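Input C-alpha cells:
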C-alpha cells in the first residue's frame, strides 16, 4: 500500500516542479525576444542594406524593398507586430530565404540536436568514467596524469582542436569525411544512410565533446576527493567494505549530483560552441544558419534562432531539474513546495 502512495507523491512533486518551471519560462523568453530585437535594431544597417551591398540598386528599389519587407515602420511598431504574431506561433518571414522562419529553423534544428546530443553523451559518459578512475585513488600517478591531461584539453580552443582533427583524420589519413552531414547525392537510405551520417558526425561530435569531457572529468574527480573525506565514507572503510564497492556505491554516487547540475548549465555553452564546430565542418545546423542570418542582416531569422535556442536551453535545464529531483528526493520536495 505504501509504494503506490510514495509513487503518487513523487509524481505530484514532479508535476508541480514542471508547472513552476514552465510558468517561469514565459517571462524569460519574452525578455530574450525583446532584448534581441532591441540589440539588433541598435546595430547599423538592416536587411535592405545587406541586400543592396551584394547586388546593387537605386533609391527607388531600396524604398520598395523597405516597404515590401516592412522595414519602413518604426522599431516599436515592428516589435509590437512581431510579439502579436508570436502569440500565434508565427516567427515571421525570412528575407534571406524567402520562407517562413519556422520552416527554416525546424529544417536545421535536428542537425544541431544530433550534434549536441551526441557530444553531450560522449563528454558526460566518458568524462564521468575517467573522473571515477582518477578519483578512486586521489594523488596517485593515474590521478595526476588524468588531471594534467584534462587541464591541457580544456585549455585547447575548440576551433583549433577541430582543425587538427580534420587535418589528421580527413586530410592525412583519409579515414573520415571532411565536412557535411552526409554524402551528397549518394542515394543511400535506411541503415546505410544512418551509417553515412554517423561517419560524417564523428569529427564534429569529437571536437565539441572533448572540451566538455575535460570539465566533467575534473568536476567528478574534485567531487570524489571531497566525498572521500566525509564521515560515512570513513565509516564504510572501517567496516571493511571493499574499495571498489565504496567507490561505486558511495563516493561516485554522491559526487555525481553536481555533474547533473553542470549538465544543464553547460547546455547553453555547448549550443554556442556548436556555432564554431558547424562552421568548421559545414554542418547545416542552427549555428551555421545564425552565421548566414548575420551576414544577410535577417532580423526575423536571427530572433527566431535565438528564441528557439533559448527554449531549447530551458527544456534541457527542466529535464536536468527533474533528473536531479529523482536522484535526490529532498531537493525535489523543497523545489515543489517552494
Amino acid at each position: 500500500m505504501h509504494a503506490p502512495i510514495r509513487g503518487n507523491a513523487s509524481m505530484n512533486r514532479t508535476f508541480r516542479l514542471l508547472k513552476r518551471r514552465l510558468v517561469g519560462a514565459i517571462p524569460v523568453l519574452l525578455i530574450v525576444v525583446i532584448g534581441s530585437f532591441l540589440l539588433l535594431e541598435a546595430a547599423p544597417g538592416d536587411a535592405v542594406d545587406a541586400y543592396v551591398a551584394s547586388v546593387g540598386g537605386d533609391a527607388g528599389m531600396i524604398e520598395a524593398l523597405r516597404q515590401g519587407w516592412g522595414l519602413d515602420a518604426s522599431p516599436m511598431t515592428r516589435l509590437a507586430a512581431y510579439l502579436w504574431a508570436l502569440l500565434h506561433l508565427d516567427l515571421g518571414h525570412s528575407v534571406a530565404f524567402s520562407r517562413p522562419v519556422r520552416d527554416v529553423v525546424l529544417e536545421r534544428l535536428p542537425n544541431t540536436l544530433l550534434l549536441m546530443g551526441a557530444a553531450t553523451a560522449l563528454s558526460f559518459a566518458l568524462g564521468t568514467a575517467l573522473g571515477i578512475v582518477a578519483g578512486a585513488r586521489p594523488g596517485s600517478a593515474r590521478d595526476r596524469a588524468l588531471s594534467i591531461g584534462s587541464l591541457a584539453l580544456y585549455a585547447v580552443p575548440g576551433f583549433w582542436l577541430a582543425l587538427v582533427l580534420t587535418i589528421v583524420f580527413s586530410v592525412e589519413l583519409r579515414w573520415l569525411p571532411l565536412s557535411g552531414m552526409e554524402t551528397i547525392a549518394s542515394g543511400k537510405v535506411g541503415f546505410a544512410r544512418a551509417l553515412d551520417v554517423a561517419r560524417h558526425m564523428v569529427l564534429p561530435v569529437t571536437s565539441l565533446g572533448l572540451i566538455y569531457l575535460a570539465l566533467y572529468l575534473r568536476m567528478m574527480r574534485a567531487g570524489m576527493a571531497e566525498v572521500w573525506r566525509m564521515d560515512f565514507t570513513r565509516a564504510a572503510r572501517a567496516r571493511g567494505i571493499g574499495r571498489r564497492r565504496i567507490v561505486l556505491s558511495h563516493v561516485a554516487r554522491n559526487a555525481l549530483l553536481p555533474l547533473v547540475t553542470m549538465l544543464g548549465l553547460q547546455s547553453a555553452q555547448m549550443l554556442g560552441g556548436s556555432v564554431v564546430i558547424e562552421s568548421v565542418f559545414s554542418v547545416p545546423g542552427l549555428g551555421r544558419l545564425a552565421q548566414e542570418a548575420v551576414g544577410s542582416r535577417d532580423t526575423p531569422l536571427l530572433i527566431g534562432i535565438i528564441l528557439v535556442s533559448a527554449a531549447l536551453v530551458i527544456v534541457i535545464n527542466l529535464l536536468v531539474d527533474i533528473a536531479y529531483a529523482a536522484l535526490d528526493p529532498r531537493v525535489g520536495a523543497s523545489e515543489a513546495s517552494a
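The beta strands are 93-94, 99-100. The chain has a mean pLDDT of 81.
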